[in-house]
Structures are given as C-alpha cells and as structure tokens.
Design brief:
single chain; alpha/beta; five-stranded parallel beta sheet; 16 strands; elongated
Length: about 475
C-alpha cells in the first residue's frame, strides 16, 4: 500500500461531516479511504462495482461520491453519465492510478467535480472533499430556499432567509394583490427593483408590463418626454410621436427608481397623473387615460427632502400609501453565504468555468465586513473572485482589498515611503472618492449625498484628484 494512503491522522479533528459513497473494486483502497474519512467524522458507505453503487445512489442521499476510474465491466467514466442522470447535483471526485490528460478531460466533461491520482495526499484529498461538500450544501440550500419562496410567493430571484427579509417578504405578499402605490426605501445596492418586481409578479397585473426607469439617470430635459411621451414636432428632435412609459406600462406596473432626484416641475406632473390617472404628452392637446400601478423607490430620506423643499409633500403622501424599508446587507448577514453561493454559481455558468467555493478565511472576512455597497457590492466581489481564480477555492487575496481591513493604511505607507504627508493624504482621498463612486455605480449625486457635500464640491475634488469617472453601469 502506498505510504500516503496509510498516513492517516491519529486523532479525529472536529470538522463538518458528510455522507460519502465510495465505489472502488480494490478492498485495500476502500478500507484506506474508509479509515481516513471515518476518523475525520464522515459517514462512509462502499460499493465494489458500478451496479451496486447505482442501487445505493437510487435509495439513499449522499453528499459526495468517490468514484474509481478502472472498475470491472463498466468504467467510472462510462458510469458517470448514468450517475449524473440519477443524481445531477451530486459532486463526484474521480480516483485513479492512470491519470492521463485524456482521462481528466473526459471525466470533467462528464460532470466530475475533481480528479485525484493515486497515491493521493490525504490533506489535499480532504480539502477537496470538504470544499465540494460545502459548495453542494450551499447550492442545495439556495435551491430549497427558492423552492420554498416560490411555493409561498413568486420570489424566485430574491435570496435570503434572515428574519428581516422574511418579515419584508410577508408584507410584500400582503400588499402585492392591492392597487395601492408602494414606496420602497433602502440604501443603494439593496435590491429595490427586485422587490418591485416581486410586488408586480404577485399582483393581478403579473401578465402585463413591468416597466422600470431610474429617474436619476435620465437627463432633466428628457425626463418628462420619457415618462409621458411626446407628439411629433414637440421639440427639435421629436421626428415622430412616441409613447411615454406611463402609457407603455398601462395595465401593469411602473417602477420609478431614485425618485428623490426628480425635478420639482416633473413631480407636479407625476402627482396629477397619479391623482387623475390621465395626462398629456409633451406638445399634445389630448388627454390620455391610463391604468398603471406605481412602485417608487428612493435611497435618500424623502421626509427630509420634503423639509428641505426638494420634494413635494403632497407627492410624498401620494406615493407612501405603503412604505417598505429594505434592510441593508449588514443587518442581514445570515444571508451572505446564500447570496455568495448564488452569485458564484451564476458567474461560473455565465463564464463557462468550473464551480468555485470560498475559503474559510474569505467567508469570515465577508461576515465581518459592513458592506456599504450592499448586495451589489457583494455581487461584484463574487464576480471578481470567480474571474481571477485559477483553483476551485477562492481565497481572501482574490476579493476586494477592503474586505481584508483598512485598504489605505500600512500598505500605502510602504508604497509611498518617500512621499510627503500631503501626498499620502491626497492619495488616500483619491482612493476613497474613487471607491465610493464605483460603489454608487458612478452616480455623482448619490456619492455627494453619501459624503454630505454639495455636488459642485465633489466635482471639484474629482478634477483636483484626477479621479477617472466611468459611465454608469460600466465596470
């Protein structure tokens, strides 16, 4: 027996356990694996060939399968498609003494999680097993959560099991069937549009249009035309009559995001459309009647905006028939592992990459971090980790530097050891401004509000610090 296979730990360590099936025709290999895994706290069952292994898979639940390549009769690679048809979600690690490139490629294409060559390294094998089981359990939890939410409501795209989210979804389910206007308040990146869509999909309007507009992203001189439409010749570029979003969404739901940025003049026309359910196009003379439900959202305090004279009080009360407060990610940290698993799976599929899991230190850092950019920031962090990773486990070093602590302290001083205090402070300010702009999706108004400075002051800082400002939505 190879030495590495006999070098089992003498004392079992407390680890996450799982239920593992071993399919291997060599009794010595099965015994060696059983000893190693049992000492580590796993429950192990064994089969000497493919047919008995398939019978066990059909009758019992397992967290992972260790499958030998060279089985009598049907090989492990030949058996793998049948295993995946029976248990498509089950992670499989192939084990063989003949690890050619062709075998590895064939096994991975057939759906194997990983490929281990005899004699194996115990610690590496255990790490691969734990990583595969952790990913499998995370994905199963996400699937089960989606299934539960779908049964209760139509909340397929909302991930979360924390008490604040479940409480919010219960309220959403109550208000969705009504005609009432809803105002959602939440920090940037918390998923306000997902909640608006959930309201629409659980309402009698679900078969009609859901139309969303970020009112802060539309130039002021085009906003009214975008919302209400215009007739031909109403202004220089109006070469044809065009419907506005109120008319497009008639019968369905219109989602007005960042409504706190809307000009006072447009607010008055929105109020009239809500009260009377009719409006006129820009340059038009005929009133158009619509039946549209309004869901609005803001990441600023609209009550304070009313006091400051930046938002109409009558429109605020018209919009806030139902108020929903979307919790920030730091208030629902229980959801971080689920969200991370969901995003990693999605990005793996989108980039046609092998699945990835997070190292323990990376997950600890994520749970300790305050996530000022909320779910959007988490999503970006997972995309970065997935794209930069070259191994199945994403370490802390592949995640954004702010997750590891203060990104502007010792490392910066080491890089700029010959710089003056003024230069170092300017560099810190540049990084902070650029970081906040990126987290706010390059929305300068939102960034200025975060820093509690006038927009003009932010613009001056951007120019003075030579901060590169990207277009909104650009990464």
């Amino acid at each position: 027996m190879p030495e590495a296979m006999l070098d089992t730990p003498a004392i079992a360590r407390p680890v996450d356990t799982g239920h593992i099936l071993i399919i291997d025709d060599e009794p010595g290999i099965r015994d060696s694996l059983e000893t190693l895994l049992t000492l580590e706290g796993f429950t192990v069952e064994m089969a000497p060939e493919g047919r008995s292994g398939l019978d066990l898979l059909a009758s019992r639940q397992y967290d992972l399968l260790l499958l030998d390549l060279a089985l009598p009769g049907e090989s492990g690679i030949d058996l793998l498609p049948r295993i995946k048809r029976l248990r498509p979600e089950l992670p499989v690690i192939m084990i063989t003494a003949f690890g050619t490139v062709g075998n590895v490629v064939d096994a991975l294409r057939a759906g194997a999680e990983n490929f281990v060559q005899k004699p194996w390294d115990n610690e590496k094998l255990l790490a691969d097993i734990r990583s595969a089981i952790a990913r499998h359990r995370s994905e199963e939890e996400v699937v089960q959560l989606k299934r539960t939410l779908k049964q209760r409501y139509s909340f397929e795209n909302i991930i979360g099991k924390s008490e604040p989210m479940m409480r919010l979804l219960d309220i959403v389910a109550q208000v969705a069937p009504s005609r009432s206007t809803v105002l959602i308040h939440g920090e940037s990146g918390t998923g306000k549009e997902l909640i608006a869509k959930a309201i629409h999909l659980n309402s009698p309007r679900r078969d009609k249009q859901f139309v969303a507009i970020n009112t802060g992203a539309v130039p002021v001189d085009l906003l009214e035309s975008t919302l209400f439409g215009h007739v031909k010749g109403a202004f220089t570029s109006a070469i044809a009559t065009k419907k506005g979003l109120f008319e497009v969404a008639s019968g369905g739901t219109l989602f007005l995001d960042e409504i706190g940025t809307m000009p006072i003049e447009t607010q008055a026309k929105i109020l009239r459309a809500l009260q009377e359910r009719r409006f006129m196009q820009v340059g038009g003379t005929q009133e158009i009647s619509v039946d549209v439900r309004i869901v609005a959202a803001s990441n600023v305090d609209l009550q304070q905006a009313v006091k400051d004279g930046r938002f109409r009080e009558d429109l605020y009360y018209r919009l806030s028939v139902i108020n929903l407060d979307l919790p920030p990610l730091r208030a629902r940290k229980e959801d971080i592992p689920l969200l991370a698993a969901h995003f990693l799976k999605r990005f793996a599929e989108e980039n046609e990459m092998e699945p990835r899991t997070l190292a323990n230190e990376a997950m600890r850092a994520m749970l300790d971090y305050e996530w000022p950019g909320n779910v959007r920031e988490l999503e970006n962090a997972m995309e970065r980790g997935m794209v930069l990773s070259t191994t199945p486990v994403i370490g802390l070093d592949l995640l954004p530097q702010q997750l590891a602590g203060n990104p502007y302290s010792a490392a910066l001083l080491e890089q700029r050891s010959d710089a003056s205090l003024f230069d170092i402070m300017e560099e810190i300010e540049r990084r902070i401004v650029a970081d906040r702009l990126e987290r706010c999706n390059w929305n300068q108004t939102e960034t200025a509000e975060f820093f509690k400075i006038p927009l003009s002051t932010l613009n001056q800082k951007i120019k003075r610090l030579n901060v590169e400002v990207k277009k909104r939505g650009q990464h």
